[in-house]
Amino acid sequence: MMTIAQTTTNEEHIALNEESQSLDHVSVSVPPEGATTGEKFERLVKIIAALRGPNGCPWDRSQTHQSIGRNVVEESYEALQAIEDNDLTDMCEELGDVLMQVVLQSQIAVDQGEFCIDDVIDGISKKMVSRHPHVFGTDASFEAAGFTQEDIDQINSVQTADDVLPLWDAIKVREKQKKAQAKEQAAIASGEKPRPKSMLDDVSKSQPSLMQAQDISRKAVSYGFEWETVDDVWDKVYEEIGEYKQAIKVAGDSKEAADADSAELEFGDILFSLVNVARKDGIDAETALRKTCDKFRRRWSCMEEQASKENRTLDSYDIDGLDSLWGQAKKQLGEH
Questions:
Q1: Sign of the dihedral through C-alpha 320, 321, 325, 331
Q2: Do residues 245 and 264 both lie within one domain?
Q3: Does residue 60 lie within any of the structural domains?
Q4: Most CB within 10 Å of its CB: which of 59, 110, 208, 276?
Q5: HSE on the CB side for 239, CA within 13 Å?
Q6: Reduced to 3 states, what is the DSSP secondary structure of residue 260?
Q7: Cα(189)–Cα(82) distance, integer angstroms
């Protein structure tokens, strides 16, 4: 589990703690026995607001949407791990960490005059009602979506209310159209030239980069941007490896940040090309890498157990000894 403080260095956190010692303590009352869910949630909102307040935590007060944006992904993955492990205790705790990220991002928005947690709750509530006409009724769903009669007529002309999934899709499509129109009108009103919608706009940038690469690749292929054979993709991989090696050599001989950035981009090109190899061979790259990480964990655990039997720790072995333990782990686990 990652706490807020873990995104800073130990030195930074010690300094912030020392600074916070000079601040007056903030009082947040414990909800009474039998408190409602709403009262408990309100307490969490007040706690986060206090952390961001004048007498709160210096670290929390300094954060922006961007500075802790990655935490949302990290906490979500930790919750996913608890779910996959079926560890209910960890699941409860990690879901709390995810909820904390939502409340913290909302409080940052409040401090910047953008939106508040009520807007977040209202938005998702309306979306859930609008996306489930088979549960709440079409009238309630259309009202929650803020559809005009023209919107309703267009949706009804596509599918009937009896077709649950097609109606869901029709509502989603119409909502996206309205959102795109609103953004275009806002851009025009502010004097900006609206950007034409891209094929890749539907690929979320918030996804882990490996999953994002897979979706981008599939989208591009649907437009005919594709290699003929998997061997052609491998040729591209080797080409990118060559460019990366050259970029690394240049970066090593240079002190320019741009050269280091170039090497980083070339390495990204290798990964993207390998994603295309996986797609060509019918392999989900994200799943494949997660399985490899799990395999490495299993083998490393076996190595630690073997070292323990010898009353040693892994850092006491040289590379040949570690390699021997690795081979024993593979054999013990029956893996190749």
A1: positive
A2: yes
A3: no
A4: 276
A5: 9
A6: helix
A7: 47
Indicate if 221 and 183 belong to the same structural domain: no
Q: Is the pLDDT of residue 182 over 70?
A: yes
Question: How far is residue 135 from each of residues 24, 142, 154, 156, measured CA to CA in Å?
Answer: 50, 13, 21, 17
Structure tokens at 266: 């070339």
Collapsing DSSP to helix, strand or coil, 55 comes out as coil
Range of the domain at 181: 123-197
Question: Does 22 score more than 50 pLDDT?
Answer: no
The DSSP letter of residue 31 is: P
Please determine, for residue 252, whether its predicted confidence score (pLDDT) is greater than 80.
yes
Q: From CA 4, how far away is CA 129, in angstroms rounded?
A: 34
What pTM does this model have?
0.56
Other beta carbons less than 10 A from residue 158's beta carbon: 14
CA angle 302, 303, 306 (to 5 degrees): 85
pLDDT of 309 above 60 = yes
How many distinct helices (H) and strands (E) make up the chain?
15, 0
Q: Is 263 part of any domain?
A: yes
In the chain, how many domains are there? 3
**Domain C-terminal end among 197, 225, 258:** 197
**Token duo for residue 55:** 């007498």
Radius of gyration of the chain (CA): 26
Is 271 inside any structural domain? yes
pLDDT band with cut points at 50, 70 and 90 for residue 157: low
**Domain annotation covers residue 265:** yes
CATH number for the domain spanning 243: value is 1.10.287.1080
Please give the mean pLDDT across all residues of the chain: 83
Tell me the residue type at 18: E
Burial of 323 (0-12, 13-18, 19+ CB in 10 A): exposed
Cβ–Cβ < 8 Å for 1, 93: yes
Specify the pLDDT at position 244: 95
266: how many CB neighbours lie within 10 A of its CB?
19
